């Protein structure tokens, strides 16, 4: 169902046909990179955090890790990830297929600066065996991003 929601969502830009569905898992950064034949840092992972009473999504490069200090400076609270059940409830996507497309709730999406070093990246498309290649600009637009943030470390 989640993959179908993303296909429907991306059809607004006539990009649903560009979603790749694999026979193997792309649920983790390493699995996705191996399946796609790209470096792990080019996988655009979507991370889900509590924000007040709601939630936010941060899309970051595959080799980036949340920096607690930077996150707290940006969002005025320490990073607290959602549970798998909360992720599914708020995004409509299960862990391993989470992306900023076709969300069940209207969540604020932020793009991390770790992505800016690439021309294209590969986010998931709602399932643990799907991805699409997008330019950074397309990811920002299709992901309905609020803004660029710098909340990660380990990729510099």
The Rg value, from CA coordinates, equals 14 Å
What is the number of strand segments?
Answer: 10
Terminal CA distance reads 37 Å
Question: Major sheet, described briefly?
Answer: 6 strands, mixed
Amount of beta strand: 25-35%
What is the CATH architecture term?
Alpha-Beta Complex
Number of domains: 1
Strand order of the largest sheet: 8-6-2-3-5-9
Taken from the alpha-carbon principal axes, the silhouette is globular
Instruction: Output mean pLDDT.
Output: 96
- Going by helix content, strand content and strand pairing, the class is alpha/beta
Tally of alpha and pi helices: 5
Characterise the protein shown here:
The chain has 156 residues and is α/β, with parallel strands linked by helices. It has a single domain (2-149), classed as YbaK/aminoacyl-tRNA synthetase-associated domain (YbaK protein). Helix content is 26%, strand content 26%. The chain has five helices and ten strands; from the N terminus they run αβαβββααββββαββ. A six-stranded mixed sheet has the order 8-6-2-3-5-9. It has a two-stranded antiparallel sheet with strand order 1-7. A two-stranded antiparallel ribbon has the order 4-10. Strand 2 (43-51) and strand 3 (54-61) form a beta hairpin. The longest helix is centred in the first third of the chain and has 9 residues, at 2-10. It is globular, with a radius of gyration of 14 Å.
Essential attributes:
alpha/beta; YbaK protein; 10 strands; two-stranded antiparallel ribbon; 156 residues; 6-stranded mixed sheet
Topology:
Layout: H1 2-10, E1 20-21, H2 29-36, E2 43-51, E3 54-61, E4 65-66, H3 68-75, H4 84-91, E5 108-112, E6 120-123, E7 130-131, E8 134-135, H5 136-142, E9 145-149, E10 152-153
Parallel strand pairs: 2-6, 3-5, 5-9
Antiparallel strand pairs: 1-7, 2-3, 4-10, 6-8
